[in-house]
Amino acid sequence: MRTSEIAKRFVTYFEKQGHLVMPSASLISPNPTTLFTIAGMVPFIPYLLGEQTPPSRRMTSNQKCVRTLDIDEVGKTTRHGTFFQMLGNFSIGDYFKKEAIHYAWDLLTSPQDQGGYGFEKDKLWVTTYTDDEEARSLWKTEGMDPEHMQVLGMEDNFWTTGGPGPGGPCTEIYVDRGPEYGPDGGPIASESRYIEIWDLVFENFEVDNVKSKTNLHIVGELANKNIDTGMGLERVAYLLQGKQNIYETDEIFPVIEEAERLSGRKYGDDPEDDVRFRVVADHVRSALMIMGDGVRPSNEGRGYVLRRLIRRSIRAMKMLGVEQEVFPHLLPVSEAQMKLSYPELESSFAEVSETAFGEEAAFRRTLDQGSTILDVAISQAKKDASEKGQEQPVVSGKEAFTLHDTYGFPIELTTEIAREQGVGVDDRSFRELMAEQKQRARADALKKRHNVDLSVYDDAKKALAKPIEFTGYKEFSSRGT
Ligand code: SER
């Protein structure tokens, strides 16, 4: 089943249950606490909080999302993507636990020829929140094996956006991939065997001050008992398509194939190369989608996230032995897949491509300038470590700083390149040098300001140096007459 078909089935199912189909909102988050839309529920926050009236009390959507918190996991696990799509059904004070659990079970287990996903019932597992007996009994009524239900606490089964906003206890649904992927024992026992696909949140609380999952402050109950659910489209796709991970699904894999062609290497031949192939496929798609929503590379905020994604893709391709420009080849392949679901990509693609190609060319110049210096620093670090009998060679903070300051090499890049060769970077001393530089710049700016001010005073001083002729009597007397 193609990814787009899985998405279509979801929204069609919920439309039949009286839900209004909402279009995906932009990736640029309307929520000021996050840069990107990180979950399907983000556009619905004002409705969930009761601040705005929803167009319908039942809604469903397939929302574009970006999360880069786990960027280092991309390519290494089966399921981490920086761009992903979250399918969801939302009830704003309409139905609650009973219907949410029933719909989920029904859609997951109904046969494929009847519009469902056809998952085998005995492959499904759920976790529920500590004292949520109601959810457990509802799952049992649907037909879930009681042995396949596990109880988790605040850390795992109380959902929040990570900042102030709506939140609540949840029940998560998992698919068992089978004993070849990990030990028995349910989601608690193995993350790689039991894949979380869908989270049903019983979202009737407002939280603030979210320091950590176990240290959050519940402001109180919301006016409405809401339902917010999120299903990972790419995860369901890889399970239904019988693939090993999200990167091998129909929307993502063609980029890997293009990267194979460019590099002359084969996906599946070498575990380290495979991670690189997956990073490329993930990051090129994310960069495309982020640019499609109007973000352009820059040195801060969203633009910097985009810049990192583009640079990491180019670096991964370099590690695959590709020296030529890669975006002119990879970006159109990703666009051809993604425009099947997002036809609007087409209208901005010429401009998006031009931006990406320009960014690649600029980055290649940076790489050319800094790479030799970094190579020397890495060899030196290795030599020093072996002479001093140290286990971990480390590039000094001073060298990392020079690379940053003189060659425009961001610290993340230095760290990544060094790490690939088993070498660390003295991050602490780098940060100290950065702080010193900032202080120097601040002091310089202050001095410049003083200089300007002093020159103004100089003029005044000069004027004052002349003898002052007192004309008061004359002027006042003349004015007075
Ligand atoms: N808000 C929940 C999540 O993002 C369910 O949509 O997982």
TrEMBL record:
Q: Which cofactor does it need?
A: Zn(2+)
Q: Is the keyword Ligase assigned to this protein?
A: yes
What keywords does the record list, in alphabetical order?
A: Aminoacyl-tRNA synthetase, ATP-binding, Coiled coil, Cytoplasm, Ligase, Metal-binding, Nucleotide-binding, Protein biosynthesis, RNA-binding, tRNA-binding, Zinc
Note on how the cofactor is bound: Binds 1 zinc ion per subunit.
The compartments listed are: Cytoplasm
**Main location group:** cytoplasm
Enzyme class, first EC level, given as a word: ligase
Q: Which residue ranges does the record assign to the Alanyl-transfer RNA synthetases family profile domain?
A: 1-481
The EC number(s) this enzyme carries: 6.1.1.7
Recorded GO molecular functions are: alanine-tRNA ligase activity; aminoacyl-tRNA deacylase activity; ATP binding; tRNA binding; zinc ion binding
Enzymatic reactions: tRNA(Ala) + L-alanine + ATP = L-alanyl-tRNA(Ala) + AMP + diphosphate
| Gene Ontology biological-process annotations | alanyl-tRNA aminoacylation
GO cellular component terms, alphabetically, are: cytosol
What domain comment accompanies this record? Answer: Consists of three domains; the N-terminal catalytic domain, the editing domain and the C-terminal C-Ala domain. The editing domain removes incorrectly charged amino acids, while the C-Ala domain, along with tRNA(Ala), serves as a bridge to cooperatively bring together the editing and aminoacylation centers thus stimulating deacylation of misacylated tRNAs.
Q: Which family does it belong to?
A: Belongs to the class-II aminoacyl-tRNA synthetase family.
> Which function does this protein serve?
Catalyzes the attachment of alanine to tRNA(Ala) in a two-step reaction: alanine is first activated by ATP to form Ala-AMP and then transferred to the acceptor end of tRNA(Ala). Also edits incorrectly charged Ser-tRNA(Ala) and Gly-tRNA(Ala) via its editing domain.
Instruction: Identify this protein by name.
Output: Alanine--tRNA ligase
Q: Which organism is it from?
A: Parascardovia denticolens DSM 10105 = JCM 12538
